[in-house]
Design goal:
This protein is mainly beta. Among the domains are: 134 residues, no CATH class; 48 residues, no CATH class; 142 residues, Jelly Rolls. 3% of the residues lie in helices and 36% in strands. Strands 28, 29, 30, 31, 32, 33 and 34 form a 7-stranded mixed beta sheet that branches. It has a 5-stranded antiparallel beta sheet with strand order 38-39-46-41-44. The chain has a 4-stranded antiparallel beta sheet with strand order 4-5-6-7, with no helix packed on it. The protein is flat, with a radius of gyration of 57 Å. About 13% of the residues have low confidence.
């Protein structure tokens, strides 16, 4: 049962408690007791002397949380503040601390009034707990609620649906209760000096793009559009201003407005009768260089035709020059062609050559009275024909020969001035071809690729000596008699230098002079390649999996073949060695995997060239060379030559390894089984 308790403190101040014992800190307390209710919220009025607060509180005994709405009135010498809900931000973070107006269970819109200590900067927040402007509205944007702010007077119950944020000023509604934009009255901006302009800016909803000014209306009424799109079709509408009112005119109306085609254009100027006009300025015309008088025309300057253009004359047209002085000059950098009936009859070439195309076939005949000759100055003259008894016919550029005592005919020698040909077979292929321009001779070929090019077999019945004089750079001794002789390479292995470095091409620098193959002689004296010298460069990841898979130096040679290495040279350029183990058993080697099974190192690996642990862990540059080691293990056909080690590296050497190997590749059948020199069946 509820009880009422009264209490006075030492200052004779009365305190009342309804349902609870009063305290000296509260004037009035209304509270439930445990035997009345255990879970319902009970109203509580209490005072807080620390802040002069009248507090409306709900107490739920079943919960440790307490929610309160404080009404505080503070009047001091520096401020006068009335506050609803004094909870500071961050306190009771799981509770709503705003004064909210709405219905339970629906979306509540918080409103807050705030000011600084001086009373300046009064801010009104709608949906924002900490407003930072005079009116600061915050609405959570969703598909159903895009975050519009409407300032309007309307009888409708709905707003016009839109996409994106909007700020709309207006009054009234239409018949469908949607916002009627036709009732918007206007926007107005001004400063004290009347210089304000009205700008329209856009950005995306997420504000990922910077705001951009799209339209500007200045104080004097000028309108600026940031972007005006191109009309991709003929809309037949042109914007015009009618006393400041924006209207449009059609194309035909614009044509009439500007006077186009009516003689009222902007072209000006004056001219002379019979003169063809030309533009003397961008909008002015005057006399040109062409004059028409009746059907005759004159050109004050040169007439220049574009490339590949022609001037065609009528059937009875004459081309006449001046009556005195220079009659006519025809000038060109190419040939002149005179055509009759579409066929060239005479041509004058740019080098001065005159060709009479109709002659040379023997169809234009007659009795010659004079012979045409050319003087040293190039003048064509006529001269007497010298009579003789020599007869015969021939071919141009052919050297004549006497076919009888008084008859000339073609020989087998021709001379074009650049090529001399000697001897022709049945297919007119010459035996000797002399290119006198390029100073080349072809034997049985019309296209010599060198100074002397022979298309056939050459037999030298005596010595063959290649050299400037007697060097014997390549010398084959024939000695003028039958029997085998020797071949000598005179510039190789020349004695006289300090042994063992004698020889002009021994140890010479330059990559083109480095040995790649060792020469040998086959059974019939044929020069063949014996051993190959190959250099492999390793760096980076080539060192990582040396234990697991190894790095291939020379790939497998193919079925029925094997690699036979003889010598190795390894050069490390320097840097750190990598994380090799310090155990002496940690080594690397070049060799082959045994058989067809696994290839664990070193048990199943035939180590022909071993690099010990001390060398592997050596930082800096080093060189290591050796011949093939005798391991006592057999070899297997078609195996690649590998570099393997007893561990995989996680930290590889920073330098590079250059590995040079001298080796053979031998086919088992052709190199051994079918290449027997001595057969023995007994001891």
């Amino acid at each position: 049962m509820a009880n009422i308790n009264f209490l006075s403190d030492s200052h004779n101040v009365g305190h009342v408690g309804i349902g609870v014992e009063p305290t000296s800190s509260n004037m009035l307390i209304v509270k439930s007791v445990s035997d009345l209710t255990s879970s319902e919220n009970i109203a509580l009025f209490e005072t807080d002397t620390s802040g002069t607060i009248i507090r409306l509180k709900a107490d739920n005994s079943a919960s440790t949380d307490e929610s309160s709405s404080d009404i505080s009135a503070v009047v001091t010498g520096t401020k006068s503040v009335t506050t609803i809900n004094t909870d500071a931000e961050g306190v009771n973070s799981d509770k709503i601390r705003d004064v909210q107006f709405g219905f339970a269970g629906s979306e509540r819109f918080t409103m807050r009034l705030t000011s600084d200590a001086s009373g300046s900067n009064p801010f009104f927040g709608i949906g924002r707990n900490t407003p930072t402007s005079t009116i600061d509205a915050n609405s959570k944007a969703t598909a159903a609620n895009p975050g519009e702010l409407f300032l309007r007077i309307s009888t409708g119950s709905t707003i016009e649906a839109g996409v994106g944020s909007q700020i709309i000023f207006g009054v009234g509604s239409d018949a469908t209760n949607n916002f009627n934009s036709s009732l918007i009255k206007g926007l107005r901006t001004s400063d004290n000096d009347g210089s304000s302009s009205l700008s329209f800016w856009t950005t995306d909803r997420s504000q990922a793009t910077a705001p951009a000014q799209r339209v500007l209306i200045s104080k004097d009424g000028a309108v600026t559009f940031n972007t005006i799109a191109n009309a991709t079709s003929d809309t037949n509408k042109f914007l015009v201003s009618d006393s400041g009112v924006l209207k449009y005119r059609t194309g035909a109306e614009v044509l009439s407005d500007i006077g186009a085609g009516t003689g009222s254009g902007t072209i000006t100027g004056s001219g002379t009768a019979n003169k063809v006009t030309q533009f003397t300025g961008t909008s002015a015309i005057g006399d040109g260089p062409i004059t028409f008088s009746s059907n005759d025309s004159t050109f004050a300057g040169h007439v220049t035709l574009a490339s590949d253009k022609k001037v065609n004359f009528g059937a009875s047209t004459n081309i006449e020059g001046a009556t005195s002085g220079t009659k006519m000059i025809l000038e060109t950098s190419d040939d002149y062609l005179f055509r009759f009936g579409g066929t060239t009859k005479v041509s004058f070439e740019s080098n001065g050559t005159v060709n009479f195309i109709g002659y040379g076939g023997g169809s234009i005949t007659g009795t010659g009275a004079k012979a045409l000759q050319v003087t040293s100055g190039g003048k064509i003259i006529e001269a007497d024909i010298t009579s003789g008894t020599v007869t015969g016919t021939g071919t141009a550029n052919s050297i004549p020969k006497w076919s009888s005592a008084s008859v000339l005919t073609d020989s087998e020698i021709s001379d074009t001035g650049s090529v001399i040909k000697l001897g022709l077979d049945a297919s007119s292929q010459e035996t000797l071809y002399l290119d006198t321009v390029n100073r080349k001779v072809g034997f049985r070929t019309q296209s010599p690729g060198s100074a002397f090019d022979v298309n056939g077999t050459i037999r030298v019945r005596n010595q063959l000596n290649v050299g400037n004089t007697t060097e014997q750079n390549l010398y084959v001794d024939g000695n003028g008699a039958a029997g085998g002789k020797y071949v000598k390479m005179g510039n190789y292995g020349v004695p006289g230098g300090a042994s063992p470095d004698n020889g002009n091409y021994f140890g010479i620098t330059g990559t083109e002079n480095q040995p790649k193959y060792c020469a040998a002689f086959g059974n019939a004296g044929k020069i063949v390649q014996d051993m190959r010298i190959i250099t492999i460069k390793l760096s980076g990841d080539a060192f990582k999996l040396l234990s697991t898979t190894g790095t291939t130096l020379i790939p497998a040679p193919g079925a029925n073949s094997l690699i036979i290495p003889y010598e190795f040279l390894v050069h490390n350029t320097g840097g750190t060695a990598g994380n090799w183990n310090t155990a002496s058993s940690t080594t690397a080697a070049i060799g082959f995997c045994d058989g067809a099974g696994t290839c664990n190192y070193p048990a199943q690996f035939n180590r022909l060239f071993v690099i010990n642990n001390t060398i592997l862990r050596t930082s800096g540059a080093w060189y290591l060379a050796a011949g093939i080691a005798t391991t006592g293990k057999t070899m297997t056909l078609n195996k690649p030559l590998l570099l393997k080690a007893s561990q995989n590296l996680t930290t590889v050497p920073t330098g590079q390894w250059y590995i040079q190997i001298r080796y053979q590749i031998m086919n088992k059948d052709s190199g051994l089984v079918q290449n027997v020199d001595i057969t023995k069946t007994t001891n």
